[in-house]
Design goal:
The protein has a six-stranded parallel β-sheet with strand order 3-2-4-8-9-10, covered by helices on one side. Strands 13-12-14-16-17 form a five-stranded parallel β-sheet, sandwiched between helices. The chain has a two-stranded parallel ribbon with strand order 1-7. It has nine helices and 21 strands. By secondary structure, it is of the alpha/beta class. It binds 2-acetamido-2-deoxy-beta-D-glucopyranose (6 copies). This is Fucosyltransferase.
Length: about 400
């Protein structure tokens, strides 16, 4: 290389370097507040990689509530009874120990993360440095189950679930294809003695002087149920209870608690069990509470209701071509007691199980861990696509309600 060549080469190199530097400077300043998602599992150190099967018959299972529950720190004491340590035997055949004490992590069989309390802002990168989510454990035991627990629908999840791929071992939701399936409620077969006091008869009708009730506190929803009710009101009396309506329950406690259903169940014939989102398997206490308190539920949702209760125990709003048609069907049932009472035939065989969804959750989890119902080793590889899609289609649908409000 001649001196001149060397000189040119150096200059060239220098020019490239300056260009690169400007480039880096440009992009780094330009992307200064770009927020990348931080993948929490990348920072969790795996300890004890031995996958030796735990002896499942040995010892009582310890379950650690790692996150809060809608901001409540006392997650396990919610409906676990006064001690807050083990599932009450009165509603569960299995006993487990529940705790929020994070120091017990290494001796816990499972960790529960409530989906809505996974704090999203801490997964972002700010000013080029990783912000470590403070609520993610730093180590994980390969034989411990990390559980994604959620009873809300995908529309109301509000968490970037893509950050949690390969993070959880088990899903625990109201979706029937969860590893641990937790329905809000369920019907159970009744015994002979229970049958005696449950025969549907005209006595039930004595105080039922009103038509349709609806308890609601979420006034504008993705399912657009509020528009349907507005339309229905043109043809039939609908009394709205709760913060979106003009009526309120006199019973103590929350307006949407069972006590309120019991109160209105005495005087109303029908109840609008309209879900806030139309999602696969999403059927909530709105449906079961109506069944439990002597009203005929009028359902509107994305679940297959015949999998939850016998046909003929409810009326599906989506099987009518308009709200006008639904109203005239209801008015006809009001006129003919015999037709109305047919909707209570199911009571000869079933009752709504008297256990809350949280009690059921902990019992099912305890049973799954105690009996080894769940896979020994599993990782939920794509949480988001599982949660948002079901059998290749989206889990939730948006109703396409035209101005005329015709149903499907
Ligand atoms: C598990 O523990 C039970 C009770 O201690 C014992 O009887 C059983 O043999 C153990 N099973 C295995 C596979 O170690
Ligand atoms: C991992 O979990 C198993 C089963 O819960 C437990 O026996 C073991 O001590 C744990 N190991 C560590 C290092 O925490
Ligand atoms: C609803 O569930 C019933 C009972 O499992 C089944 O026969 C029916 O095909 C399902 N309907 C739909 C639309 O999936
Ligand atoms: C249902 O639960 C309530 C409150 O815990 C209780 O008072 C009642 O006896 C229960 N009924 C049945 C049938 O278990
Ligand atoms: C849970 O998933 C993690 C991450 O893939 C894995 O290391 C661990 O062994 C799994 N645990 C169980 C009990 O399946
Ligand atoms: C989903 O789509 C994939 C690719 O088109 C197909 O192979 C698979 O069988 C589908 N699954 C279901 C349950 O329809």
């Amino acid at each position: 290389m001649s001196r001149k060549q060397q000189y040119l080469f150096l200059n060239f190199g220098l020019a490239i370097s300056i260009l690169l530097f400007i480039n880096v400077l440009y992009f780094s300043t330009n992307n200064w507040d770009v927020r990348r998602i931080f993948y929490p599992q990348d920072s969790v150190r795996l300890i004890s990689t031995s996958k030796l099967p735990v002896n499942l018959t040995k010892g009582i299972k310890r379950i650690l509530f790692w996150t809060e529950y809608f901001g409540h720190e006392d997650f396990p004491s919610l409906e676990l009874g006064p001690t807050g340590v083990d599932v009450q035997r009165q509603f569960c055949d299995y006993g487990c120990e529940f705790t929020t004490n994070k120091e017990l992590i290494s001796s816990s069989d499972a960790l529960i993360f409530h989906g809505r309390d996974l704090k999203t802002e801490s997964f972002e990168v700010r000013e080029s440095s990783l912000v470590r989510p403070n609520h993610i454990p730093t180590e994980r035991n390969a034989s411990q189950y990390w559980i994604f627990y959620l009873l809300e629908s995908p529309v109301n999840t509000f968490v970037p679930l893509e950050a949690f791929n390969n993070f959880f071992n088990l899903t625990m939701t109201y979706r029937t294809d969860s590893d641990i399936y937790v329905p809000y409620q369920r019907l159970v077969k009744i015994t002979e003695t229970e049958l005696q006091n449950e025969t549907p008869n005209r006595k039930l009708l004595q105080k039922k002087s009103k038509m349709v009730a609806w308890i609601v506190s979420n006034c504008e929803t993705q399912s657009k149920r509020e528009l349907l009710v507005k339309e229905l009101k043109k043809y039939i009396q609908v009394d709205v209870y709760g913060s979106c309506g003009e009526n309120s329950c006199s019973s103590h406690g929350r307006d949407n608690g069972l006590a309120c259903y019991e109160e209105i169940g005495k005087s109303y014939k029908f109840y609008l069990s309209f879900e806030n989102t139309l999602c696969t398997d999403y059927v909530t206490e709105k449906f079961f509470n109506a069944l439990a308190t002597g009203m005929v539920p009028i359902v509107y949702g994305g679940a297959n209701y015949s999998q939850h209760a016998p046909k003929g125990s409810y009326i599906d709003a989506r099987s009518f071509s308009s709200m006008k048609e639904l109203a005239s069907y209801l008015l006809n049932l009001d006129k003919y007691d015999k037709l109305y009472l047919k909707y209570f035939q199911w009571k000869k065989h079933f009752r709504v199980e008297n256990v809350t969804v949280l009690q059921r959750s902990w019992c099912r989890l305890c049973r799954a861990l105690s009996t080894g119902e769940v896979p020994l080793v599993r990782t939920v590889s794509n949480l988001k696509s599982w949660w948002m899609r079901y059998r290749n289609s989206t889990v939730c649908t948006t109703p396409d309600l035209p101005e005329t409000l015709e149903l499907l």
